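Cation:proton antiporter
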Amino acid sequence: MHHTTTLLIEVGALLLLLGLLGRISRRFGISPIPLYLFAGLAFGHGGLLPLSASEEFFAVGAEIGVILLLVMLGLEYTASELVGNLRAAAPAGLVDGVLNALPGAAFALLLGWGWVAAVVLAGITWVSSSGVIAKVLADLGRLGNRETPVILSVLVIEDLAMALYLPLLTAVLAGTGLIGGGIALAVAVFTVVVVLVVAIRYGNLISTMFSAKDPEALLLGVLGLTLLVAGIAAQLNVSAAVGAFLVGIALSGPVAHNATELLSPLRDLFAAVFFVFFGLATDPRDIPPVLLPALALAVITMATKVVTGYVAAKRVGIAIPGRWRAGLGLMPRGEFSIVIAGLAVATPGIEPQLAALATAYVLITVVSGPMLARIPDYPWFKKWLAERSAARRRTALAAPD
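Structure:
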């Protein structure tokens, strides 16, 4: 009984604080994500007032938060749009992998951490945070923008790549060899293909399971299906985020519209819990020794993400402002990077500073990413783009025929 009382007090006080921080952030026109993270740091391990009873609650809530963020993104698009965007973004996905995985691998080798650590750090710097980016797009009102499907395509390609990367990484860390890695890869590929086929071919049938006219049944049914599919996907070493996203893709028509309205408050609640838990699980005392290397790595790989998004948007004919929004929107790393680091540090022989470096790196990108994503909306940036466009036109007119 005492534990339950303490849990209620801790959760209630922290949620109340988050509500106040969210109001403050919107009053000053900034993203609430950095404030949620710092709240987690203040009350987590090594913080000002560590919370103990509510840690398990926030851990589960954080997983649900990522799942809800991704299913809500999936509800915005149809299966045909997903297939078209994935085909168009496949080359950009390859560029994304090369530009963002290689710096991490090279960084680990330069530090003398060995090739296994290089494989781990390559994954940490490669994949963007679907949860953070989904929250930023919603906060900035960009879900309907032309560049948003490009961003989502890159994220889905990354998540699908992680479905193949994580089993291989687990096999490498466990030392199971080529046969074990091949079996893990085959299971992951089979699972991804099955989930994609069911979502794309039988989406209309899935929608008929629910009634758009019964809000209570619709909420329970869609939420239950999403958590079920995400859990099964995770059990098969496929991203739970991919499973949740494909559930959203599979739903269509009035069911998808009404589900979006019903799930929005839950998404906002558990998304905030996700960011707080990230801070709660981080010990601020581990960050200072690796801050400078993490900052250098973050600057390099945030720049390569901007290039990735800019090139991907340019390939499909997005205007220059949209290209910048796509590039700057892809910078945050998050849940996958922490999962990868967690797998590595549990393995004997891996560089012990890797976890602290990954944590500091993710924090830097998660705090600065949402702030930098606002740059294309600032008047000075729009003025700079207009001046550049005018200069190019003058150069083109002055050039001889």
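Residues 138 and 225 are 23 Å apart (CA to CA).
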